[in-house]
Amino acid sequence: MSWICFGCKPEKQKQTPDSAQSIAGQVLEGVAHFSYNELRIATNNFSVSNKIGRGGFGIVYKGTLRNGPQVAIKKLAAASKQGQREFLTEINTIAHVRHRNLVQLIGCCVEGTNRILVYEYLENNSLDRALLGRKETRIRLDWEKRSAICVGIAKGLAFLHEETVPHIVHRDIKASNILLDESFNPKIGDFGLAKLFPDDITHISTRIAGTTGYLAPEYAMAGQLTPKADIYSFGILILEIVTARSSSKADWGEQQKLLLEWAWELHERGSLLELVDPDLEEYPKEEVLRYMKVAFFCTQAASQRRPSMSQVVDMLSKNIKLNEKQLTAPGFFQDSGGFSGAPTSSKKSSNESSYQMSSVPLTITQVKPR
């Protein structure tokens, strides 16, 4: 069995320093190329006043091109060798993929040591900033907008998982990678960690990359990647959208529980609505409860128990009765290196090795088969 990863080289080959010419040769011909000077002018020399975000491998600036349109310009850190791979992966993954819930790549710059991506500009920045950020950056989102954001993200993921060929697993679904246009239509961005997933394989064994609080346990513990990892992350995202609380902080109750862990406890007590964002003064209680229960279906400890994204779209957008008897405790990975949520024999032993995640300073444990 084989899998495809644009921008990656076989491990057996020794990698040499990437020149601008070799990088440019790997970029698809259909992608627009901008000069560094064009983008420098567009951003007023990459002025701090135009900075609108920071990703794992660089800074994002707001810019205005010479012919008028505003764009988001992501300037990769020149010293990041890992960023080079993500740069090519992102271009080759989404250059010709179009969907209303995916951020559109406009072009790139490969000049000297500069690696820059140019995207459509989205007026309301990221979901993270709008909902989970500092008070001065937050936007008041009513339930109608929040539910539409959930459904839009689900549709974008369903498109990636089920309609693109080969299928695409994003690997880093989180609030900061969801951007909002002027009408609060959500768009999935940052495909630097994405993997292409052919039909003829069951999973990819890969290095672990992603963000604390969103990682599916089977992926965090053993590097076993399937589209179900994105579905798990999306379940966490639903809870964040409903509660306006970050999943990456353990700050619930006396025991400092994770958001998912605390939500399940409240569900078992019949008090799940206690988690709803207090700023949501009016909302349809049954619908909000249904969304939170869909989050539990998405975060089931056993990946095979999670629904597909097309099923999730139906569960969110149609007033259907969920079979809650099928729900078991969700699984979650704890910073201490533990796994919770379902019975497992994967306990710590001497047969373990630690791996550092790519985008957060956290060491996690991978259990090797005996």
TrEMBL record:
Tree of life domain: Eukaryota
Protein name: Uncharacterized protein
Organism per entry: Melastoma candidum
